[in-house]
């Protein structure tokens, strides 16, 4: 009787130990994702979101997305909030099956990886880049005037004084000289005639 009771107590203890040990030994696993596994999407997602059974950590390259022909989406900075991993993406590629690949670090330090396949029913065109800007030519009015030669500048400066020869009011000097000679001659002539009339 004692042996039976002891065996029963031992069995209960072993069962209790096993039941508490199973959760501790369980590995982190993916509970849900967006896009969901096997989903068919008419429009591509703007981000990938993975929810795990416990808090995880990520390293560079934790999330990637590949499509038909090895087409790779551009993945932005991956962030973690406890059990939820979020990665912004830039989709591109034809319609077909795509695969989200992930690799995270569980709470006990073990790496956990997996894949989430989904389908795009419409192609995603590549983003159109803006054409390079070309420098505009300066307007014709802003062009520099051709330089003036030194000889032309000298000629232009000397031209207004060409007919004046230092005279006053624009009258040449020789006119003043001739006038003085005529006046002097007239004075001499008047003096000679006055002397003859007295004699």
UniProtKB/TrEMBL annotation:
Organism domain of life: Bacteria
Domain CopC: start-end pairs: 27-120
An individual GO BP term: copper ion transport
Biased composition (Low complexity): 139-160
Provenance organism: Kibdelosporangium phytohabitans
Positions of region (Disordered): 127-166
InterPro entries xrefs: CopC/D, CopC_dom, Cu-Rt/internalin_Ig-like, Ig_E-set
Signal peptide: 1-26
Cellular compartment(s): Cell envelope
Record's compositionally biased regions (Pro residues): 128-138
Transmembrane regions: 173-192
Keywords: Copper, Membrane, Metal-binding, Signal, Transmembrane, Transmembrane helix
An example molecular function term from Gene Ontology annotations: copper ion binding
GO cellular component terms, semicolon-separated: cell envelope; periplasmic space; plasma membrane
Protein name per Swiss-Prot or TrEMBL: CopC domain-containing protein
């Amino acid at each position: 009787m004692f042996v039976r009771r002891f065996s029963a107590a031992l069995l209960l203890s072993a069962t209790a130990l096993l039941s508490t040990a199973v959760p501790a030994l369980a590995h982190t696993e993916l509970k849900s994702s967006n896009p969901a596994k096997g989903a068919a999407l008419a429009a591509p997602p703007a981000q990938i979101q993975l929810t795990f059974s416990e808090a995880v950590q990520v390293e560079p390259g934790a999330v990637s997305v590949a499509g038909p022909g090895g087409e790779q989406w551009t993945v932005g900075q991956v962030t973690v909030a406890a059990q939820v991993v979020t990665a912004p993406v830039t989709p591109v590629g034809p319609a077909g099956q795509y695969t989200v690949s992930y690799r995270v670090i569980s709470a006990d330090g073990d790496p956990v990886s997996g894949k989430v396949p989904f389908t795009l029913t419409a192609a995603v065109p590549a983003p159109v880049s803006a054409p390079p800007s070309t420098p505009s030519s300066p307007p014709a009015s802003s062009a520099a005037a051709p330089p003036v030669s030194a000889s032309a500048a000298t000629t232009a400066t000397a031209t207004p004084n060409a007919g004046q020869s230092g005279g006053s009011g624009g009258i040449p000097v020789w006119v003043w000289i001739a006038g003085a000679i005529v006046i002097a001659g007239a004075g001499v002539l008047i003096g000679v005639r006055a002397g003859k009339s007295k004699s």
